[in-house]
Design a protein that fits this description.
The structure holds 2 protein chains of 2 kinds.
Chain A (H helix, E strand, L loop, with lengths): L10 H21 L4 H15 L3 E4 L2 E4 L3 H8 L3 H16 L7 H25 L3 H30 L7 H29 L10
Antiparallel strand pairs in A: 1-2
Chain B lengths: L1 H14 L7 E8 L2 E8 L9 E5 L5 E6 L5 E5 L7 E6 L5 E6 L5 H7 L9 H34 L4 H25 L1
Helix pairs in contact in B: 2-3
The chains are: A mainly alpha, B alpha+beta.
């Protein structure tokens, strides 16, 4: 779903996606320090393995993206985690493609980073567990919907042939957004209880 | 955090490596028809997806939507040309499979209508053509399951690949940590 294969997107979209991804990765690299590296790697591994478990929904099949969670926990380093995981999925399993690597990275990472920036402060500072769960859930769901919107946008920009039908996109992304909301909310609540530091991406 | 995420990671890695996420199209020739189906590697068929068959020049040969099991079918193109079947789930998954014109040879003979007014020597050629078509059909019946199996094995996820991916990521993290340590 978020793995757009080679040969569907037009050159300007590919190049634009590549440049955006490069910018995001450069930003992510500047944020990396000793504390962030293991965390980035762990979430990259979780994302890598998580996207291999897909569940059929309607005409498609969906899998967890964890982008909202990554946005909250990693900040801009999300780009790095997503890029590495997508590269490995492309090389090992043929999901997506090398030319679309940049676009796919941006599609998944950008909504997550934005959600992390918007909802991260609430999640970190609130003393109320219910609000924290809700904010985490919102981050998870909005990141998924953002990814769905981005995928639709790049396909539509490239060629009207493969422009996704809004009905199908909603039918497949909505259940996923609900699941992600629950997973993200649960993980965020749990981390806030046992290790609040893990929710705070640190600047170097 | 590691204590929390590692079990989650392991659960994900081992819960369903049979499931995966890539659309593929399987197409074959049966009798006078090209049939096939679109499937997600490891699990699920693409039901209700839009499909279209085109020749190399891009001219449409046939199109429609897949049935509840992701199947499609259309008559063998006349004259035989390379046919590319593209399936689009309308939400970002698109996959294609190409059947070379050579695959349509026997099937074309099977469906070509017998000439109405044929001279005597043509009768023998007619019989031969029918025999060829029968052999073609029999072989096809035997070979189809094998080809499906090959297609599935080709795209199966392997534990070794999943594990090597995860450990490559951990290795990268180790290298990054080491590089940071050198610089500090």
């Amino acid at each position: 779903m978020a793995h757009i294969p080679d040969g569907l997107l037009s050159a300007p979209v590919l190049i634009g996606g590549g440049l955006l991804a490069a910018g995001g990765v450069a930003l992510g690299l500047r944020w990396l320090d000793e504390r962030m590296i293991p965390r980035t790697a762990l979430l990259a591994a979780a994302f890598f393995a998580g996207s291999l478990v897909a569940v059929p929904v309607g005409p498609s099949s969906v899998h967890l993206l964890l982008a909202g969670l990554m946005g909250v926990m990693l900040g801009p380093a999300t780009f790095l985690a997503v890029l590495v995981a997508l590269l490995l999925q492309t090389l090992l399993f043929g999901f997506g493609g090398l030319t679309t690597l940049g676009v796919n990275t941006v599609n998944i990472a950008l909504p997550g980073v934005l959600c992390g920036m918007a909802l991260g402060p609430v999640i970190r500072s609130t003393p109320r567990a219910s609000l924290r769960f809700a904010a985490g859930a919102a981050a998870g769901a909005l990141a998924v919907l953002g990814t769905g919107g981005m995928v639709a946008l790049v396909l539509w920009l490239s060629s009207s042939d493969f422009a996704p039908a809004a009905r199908v996109v909603i039918a497949t992304y909505l259940p996923l957004a609900l699941v992600e909301a629950f997973v993200t909310g649960a993980v965020v609540s749990f981390l806030a209880r046992v290790q609040p530091e893990a929710l705070r991406p640190v600047t170097s | 955090m590691i204590r929390l995420l590692l079990p989650l990671l392991l659960a994900l890695a081992f819960a369903g490596p049979a499931q995966a996420h890539k659309l593929k199209v399987f197409a074959t020739v049966e009798g006078g028809e090209v049939t096939g189906y679109a499937f997600f590697i490891g699990g699920g068929r693409a039901a209700g997806a839009v499909w279209a068959a085109k020749d190399p020049a891009g001219t449409a040969l046939a199109s429609g939507t897949t049935d509840g099991e992701g199947r499609f079918a259309f008559p063998v193109p006349q004259p035989p040309v390379d046919a590319t079947v593209t399936v689009d789930t309308r939400e970002g998954h698109v996959a294609a499979a190409t059947l070379p014109a050579g695959r349509f040879g026997g099937a074309a003979a099977a469906v070509s209508p017998p000439p109405v007014d044929r001279p005597a020597p043509a009768v023998e050629a007619e019989g031969e053509a029918r025999l060829a078509a029968l052999v073609e059909a029999a072989v096809q019946r035997q070979v189809t399951p094998l080809m499906e199996r090959i297609e599935q094995m080709d795209s199966r996820l392997r534990y070794a690949d999943i594990l090597s991916g995860i450990f490559l990521i951990l290795g990268l993290a180790g290298m990054a940590l080491w590089a940071k340590g050198q610089r500090a």
